[in-house]
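The following record pairs a protein chain with its ligand, protoporphyrin IX containing FE.
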Amino acid sequence: MSKARHAGWRAVRRGAGLAGGDVDTVLSRSPEPFSPASSEKRAALAHFEPHNVLISRGPVRTVRRALQEQVLDSEHPVHHLADRFVPVVEEEMQHLLAGALRTGSLPWEEFLDAWYRVVRRVVFGDHARDATELTDLIIRLRRDGNWAFLKPVRRRTRARLLQRIGAELAIADPGSLAAVMAAAPKGDGAEPSDQVPQWLFAFDPAGMATFRALTVLATHPAALAEARREVDGDTSGRRVLPYLRATILESLRLWPTTPMILRQTTQPVQWEHGLMPEGCGVLVFAPYFHRDERALRRAHDVFPERWLTDEDDPWPLVPFSDGPVVCPGRLLVLLLTSAALASVVGGHELAPGSGPQLASDTPLPGTLDHYSMTLEVSKRP
Ligand code: HEM
């Protein structure tokens, strides 16, 4: 850790709370001794994916993480199935926009329906485009998950979901994530069916981040102009769109969809100021760091450029977490969401409709209710 980095972080230590440098320690020393399989998370995710990597410990965690990384192509900015995925995004977005042009408006619910069609085609293949029961089941069980220990697990519904996913893995269309999963070599205890619900569940926030980014572009003319410059000059077939990827990251910085990153110590951990016992819960509250105007340039503005230089690197901006447990789907998310933004802004004018109003000369609010948001859409001249 560089000196300047260290100094900056320590400057904000307060009371018994942990500061920026400590975030780095916790995330880089995961999964041991800072395990992501905290008691709260195990209780929440047990409702629909009891053997998922995120709540696994020991050797099976290593096996499940390796499988996730392989299928999601975690280290590659352009997933090896991008040639299939990007046209799926384009097709579904154009279908959505054709409807929006007829009414002049694009509400969140319609965007979400289209986004889930993309998700089902990417995860299972074209045959699952309209298989809404797959995503509905997970949405239902995830709602139970919010109650964690307080609600009994619906074992029959969970078994139905996992069986259904197992059947999908057996018939997955070539060129889908499920087909890659089915063909991948697997270590003992990989439990492939339990790894898939996390994908379905986690694509939901990717849709939210995209819709919020569209709202930002609709209200920030300089960012929209830069986005359009990138789309108009693109020669990568929408696979490499750094500014649009940065716009999604900025949307996730401003309104993190995983605001709380949870850990639990698996052994006592010595800190500068004392000993943290085994079994201690640790919470990294991302919005606290993401909006700290003492450490960040333009903390409450849209400033996608921050993700294109290393100036803010020392500060923990962690929408996808960081370290060995970092979200293995992050680069796939950025590929698909930036392609979705490109499909919309390339050929369409956007204006804010109903819902919370954003403006380029006003600090952005700390939360953004996307449920009530509508965008006005017209053809770009
Ligand atoms: C905007 C969308 C998403 C965000 C903001 C996000 C963020 C995160 C975060 C914060 C974690 C927790 C890491 C930790 O505890 O340190 C995580 C874990 C994970 N995410 Fe994502 N995620 C997103 C979408 C996805 C998608 C679409 C997939 C799969 C297709 C995915 C797969 C996973 C997996 C498998 C884990 C568990 C990793 C592990 O335990 O090693 N995520 N994600």
